[in-house]
Amino acid sequence: MYCSVSDVESELYLPVLKQMQTAWGAGYETAVLAQIETAECYIDSMLAGSFETPFKFQRPEDVPKALRVCCQKFAAFGIVARFSEKEDIVADRRTDAESMLMAFLSSGRIPGMPDDGKGGDAKGKIRWKSSQEVFTDKEFEKW
User: Residue 77 and residue 9: Cα distance in Å, rounded?
Assistant: First the structure.
């Protein structure tokens, strides 16, 4: 998972959080986890053109903070919209997360994502230097 239930809760206003927990009871965590899954699907679909998605992380702490923040903002937007049908009260979270995703796409990088060893992040997208697999010394000698 790109974020946790507690990450999503950190985005919520305390009174709304308490109302959701009371109203949904034992189903509360399941509802939040469903919104996290939805947020992950949205993030993956947005980034799939530039990165190999879905991202795989060994441990939750391996998820880059920037990616975690996007996920928790989208999930918070979704859970509040589902609960109150008043998504405008958390629309800024969705807007912020979309802006972050667009910045990732334009830069071709996700801050905190480990280098793949090929000069790029995730998919090996060329970044700052030529790919040694494509532009070998032998190829350069031909020029």
Answer: 11
What are 83-118's pLDDT values in tens digits? 876 556 566 777 777 887 888 788 777 767 776 555
pLDDT at 116: 59
- Average the pLDDT over 128-133 and give the result: 49
113: which DSSP letter? P
Q: Quick check: pTM over 0.70?
A: no
Coil/strand/helix, residue 118: coil
Angle at 93 between CA 29 and CA 18, to 5 degrees: 35
- Cα–Cα distance, 45 to 85 (Å, whole number): 24
| Mean pLDDT score across all residues of the chain | 80
Neighbouring CB atoms inside 10 A of 74's CB total 30
With beta carbons less than 8 A apart as the criterion, state whether 80 and 24 touch. no
Strand partners of residue 115:
121
The neighbour count for residue 128, using CB atoms within 10 Å, is 8
- Whether 73 contacts 97, CB under 8 Å: yes
Report the candidate in 70, 93, 71, 69 with the shortest Cα–Cα distance to residue 81.
93
